[in-house]
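for the record, two folds in this file. i put them one after another cuz i was lazy. first one right below, seq on top, structure tokens after. the second one comes after a little note so u can tell where it starts
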Amino acid sequence: MAMTNQELLESFARTTERMFAPEEFTKLLESGRQLRIKYGVDVTAPYLHTGHAVNLWMMRQLQDMGHRVIFLIGDFTTRIGDPTGRDLLRPVLPQEEIARNAEAFIEQASMVLRFDDPDLLEIRRNSEWYSHMPAEELLRLFSMITHARLISRDMFQARIQQGRDIYMHEMLYPVLQGYDSVELHADLTIIGSDQLFNEMLGRFYQEHSGQAPQVIITTRITPGIDGKAKQSKSLGNYIGLGHSPREKFGRTMTLPDELIIPYLEVYTDVPLAEIARIKAKLADEPMRAKLLLAHEIVRRYHGAEVADREQEWFLQTFSSRKVPGDIPELQLAGGELSALEIVKRFFGPRKSNSELRRLFQQGGVSLNGRRIVRPEEIVEVRQGDEWRVGRRTWFRVDVR
């Protein structure tokens, strides 16, 4: 059963940081027409995490009420590179990589958004208009924005203070992202607060084009699973939509206790009243609360049955200190190899030698329960040897 407008507003309040402007949003919902929700992505890195998914779940609720998400692939603007959060120039990606990244984005976003109904989701690319836009039209857009307004962005100010270069195409990026809203006739966009400057330009250009300005909702941002900076692939402190259910569960269980309640509020649909009860008992039952959180995150993306199975696996493995029965096998010839070479053969290109060396040095590698701290240690390869790397990875040797 679809939500009422009031129920939607109450649900959105849970994950909303700011809204521009709430009275406009209420009027849009009460208009009775299908709303157009802009969801723009620059496909520089093909991954989404639970932080990104906060916005996706809000859009999914709107889809379930009959509204349309416009999935805008910024294939043209990706060639420029969004300067948001950057103190250095982004590298330019080749067109083939942009296309691959776009497909990866769609695959991950489809874990939340409905791609099965063309009336509820439309895929667009901003090369549709920018690749054919006359230079005079671009100059007209640029002439409407002052240099002072563009360099007021925090990342540009930081570069100025550091004496770093700002390239012209980076300064013009917000103009292009903002004008996308005109081309899409966007009623609403749901974003992280770091995109607010660009999307406010969208409202500006829509008003100057005779359109009603889009409503902008910025969403809550939490620290990553290390309790420090926000979720980031480069920092490794994230729960990825592309992660396996086991990886999602395991990463959630590493969370600092003080983030359990914020994560329940932002990344799950557990009722707020129940979260309040959990909060009251958190000091006495942190592990129970964290298990519930991990279960709910996995359930949301993979279903209750999978979540139950991963919780049982986690409890058997970590609480009972048992080696899992379903660990993968690594086929090796007999003889002797360094411990680093054996572990490297299991991971292949997924981990660099430097990453693996750090794991050894930190005591994160063991063979049949014996910790190995020297990567160069020579090991005799034996059938059935059980290796553990880090907290959640095992493999068993199969001698061929």
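(here's the note) second protein begins now
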Amino acid sequence: MDIPPRHFVIGWKVSALEPQVASVRYRALLPVLALEEQHGFECRVFSDQHAVELGELDALVIVKGLGLEDFELAQKAFARQIPIILDLCDNIFAQGYGESKVDYRPTPSDVFSTIARYASAIVVSTEPLEELVRLYCGDHHAVVVIPDGVESSKRLLEIDARLRQDRGQQRRRAIRTFGRRLWRSMHRLQDFGRMAWGPLIQRSRRIINTNSAAQALRALARFRPTAIFSTDTQRLASAGGTRSVEAPAVSAALKLLWFGIHGAEHGNFGMLDLLLIQADLEQIAQEFDVELVVVSNHREKFERHIKPLRIKTRYLNWSAATMEQQLREAALVLMPNSLDSFSLCKSANRTALALTAGVPVVATLTPALRELSDCIRTGSFLEGMRWYLSNPSRGAQSAGQGQAIIQRVYGSRRIATLWLDVLNTAVRSRSSQEHASEQPSSANLVVSIYLVMDIDLALPVIRRAQGMGIEVMVLCNSEIRAIKPDIETLLRAHCRQYLLVHRTMLDRHFLFPASATALLTFSETNLRPHAFNHQLTKMANRAGLATFTTQHGFENVGLTYDDSIQPIRKISFAAQHIFIWGSLETLHPSIPPRTRRKCIPIGCPKPERGTRATLPQAFSGNKPVVGIFENLHWKRYSDAYREAFISNVMKLARMCPEVLFLVKPHNAGLWLTSRFRGELPSAPNVVIADPRAPQWASTTASGVFWRCAAVITTPSTVALDAARYGLPVAVVAQGLSLNNYAPLPLLHDPQDWWGFVADALEAQKRPALADLARKFCRRVVLADGADLRMVEALFPQYAKAVQLHDGASHVPAL
């Protein structure tokens, strides 16, 4: 069923109503004008989500949706069952793209990947970008390649006029929206009297800061006609904000033109691509009277890197008029490309623009240029420049040949047809109430990974579930990438479906797969550090999923630990069931009955032997290594405990010069290397594994056990992990009562520290310490097979298929 022949309204959300932004022109205005002219659509282009009436739209296109405001808009549109199409023209998945120094802000790829769940279709500009989107967003999305359109002088004037009109309409809508909100606020004041003053003031401030008439008037005051031409996906402001053209130097030299944005941190592209062909440029300068003209937005970069080349050069600040003039005068255009992951996804719009202007092009062949490969020169830049400079008629012939291809492939009719197909699919989806985001998913189990420590607990369960035919979708906190940059590589290797979500983007509109029946989280409580999983579990409960969480540490708040700072009676779990590592007897005596009833003894799914970490050269010798670990919750301890810990590390290092001591702070707590303000332990045989240092960033405690002869730890899960690994373990008590660690040795003074290390390194006494570690494990954690028992509890129907040899189920009935 095609789009019905009626007044059809499409909303186009762009980053700014400015023609300098290439994505606005290429990805919004060119399709908008084509659809309006050829199919009679009404298109409303806007940059402020509050300046559009969603109820009037038949479909919504979000161009380069990279901000939280785009996420909010997508949620609102989805709630109204308005089909959403996402349009993307850059490789936002490239490392460093759009990253903010403010660590709580999601990256553009975080936002895009999350919005994609609401989308009926994703439109991209190139085939390499299509492959990336499928990799990061999954094959269940409809991903369509629609190339950038082709510009012309006439079209640019139409775009400029259209955007002036859209800016005026947006200002009027913003003022109306502000008026409606102010009216509602006044009614609230009337209804609630003086009690409403606080909320009213706060709401009014938010309105003023975002959508007020004052802001609209300020924007109007700043507005002036601007240049309407750009060559990349970012704004290229002309010098002084004017459209004046820099006076060109009088020269008879043949002009080699490069134009574009100067570059960015997230990719190896831009002006410095010219350095890739430096030798060719310098050689052609010896053979022809040429001048390299660079039109860009970074004079300093030109002066530092391009001007020193042994070729006549000239820099011009970008402006529309400058570009128009330089294209008229250019002998040829140069388009080198580094072919990095970002540049490889770029479109052919600059090459198409040059050919449309009648200028031949010498370029690096990229996937986007394959359609034009017969009418441009690729391969050797030196040979390509010689080819065109030695015979100008060749350039005219190539440009003419290219113009015919451009109109066929990138012309207005072609772009309109491709967009019509996408919109047809979206409308059919809406009319049959089969929104793309609500299509059945094959995921039965949703697993949430919020902390780095969750990974070791989660992976065995994920592998076990998938091995039993259960489809798993992993919901991973995107902020983990700051600590573990290879998290996506890890997820791709272990699960078929995963989604990275920033904590700020988890709200009541979050969509669980339609086929999901269970949610498994780790570290879920009502405490603030566990808020993500707590909120997710509440939403899963409302969605009708069975919800489970897992004991994540030996001393686990709300389960096995109680103090005045985190009293066990105040800790609550939203999950319906809690998997614990040991028997019910390992729970704290003061655990509330409501929590105890949820607990299921299951064992610890974390593998006994983790992946070996690569250690620095200092650990490559034959010296025995003793690992000393400090934990997350240092606020539990007194100043005397802290001081004694540091002092005893130093004394032990001096008493055992033949031993190498690896001091490992907790990856999240960072007490020793971040919060401690005193003098750090320092000795030739002491190495502090600072998790903030790149070499230690993703190293966990279990990753260094392979090199340790023994382990000393403050009260923490490390004691259990090391004991399960088979190492002699001692716990720093320093006067604390730690009965739950029995029968492990407890260290109270320097002699205890030294005695433990001496015994652990002595062949005759070491077996006795290892035996204490085994007894400790048997007391506090169930035997192997926790991952299987956990999956059976999550999906009881599988318990019948996988049973012990005596026919008994692995887990108690829920």
